[in-house]
Structures are given as C-alpha cells and as structure tokens.
Inverse folding.
C-alpha cells in the first residue's frame, strides 16, 4: 500500500483591509480603498483614510439625492 500525501497550495496571504469591506457601489471611495491596501506608512494611510471617509460620505449623499429624484 502506497502512502499518499495531499498538498494544498494557497496563494499569498493578504491581511484583512483595515477599513472593512470595499464599498463597491461607491466608485471613488472604492478607488481610495484600493489605494490604501497595506503595507504603507502610517502617515500615508492616515491621509488616504481621511479622504476616503470624506468622499464616501459625499458619495452616499449624492447617491441618496439621485435615488430620490423624480
């Protein structure tokens, strides 16, 4: 009887994104989310996060207004 070993190869490990799930329905915010993939310096990430939060809030408001338009 032969000994058989099953080997599973996984792709490179990617840590979870520090900001949670990607906002796919908000294209500009999604681009900022993509730009902030680790690893980056803390100062770069802080600036991108501030922009991300501001743009995400703005996009959500625009989307809400668009949805309410006749």
């Amino acid at each position: 009887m032969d000994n058989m070993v099953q080997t599973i190869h996984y792709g490179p490990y990617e840590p979870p994104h520090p900001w949670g799930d990607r906002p796919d329905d908000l294209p500009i915010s999604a681009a900022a989310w993509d730009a902030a993939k680790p690893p980056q310096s803390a100062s770069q990430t802080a600036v991108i996060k501030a922009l991300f939060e501001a743009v995400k809030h703005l996009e959500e408001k625009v989307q809400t207004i668009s949805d309410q338009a006749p």
Remarks:
- Helices lie at 27-35, 42-68.
- Residues 27-68 form one domain.
- The mean pLDDT is 78.
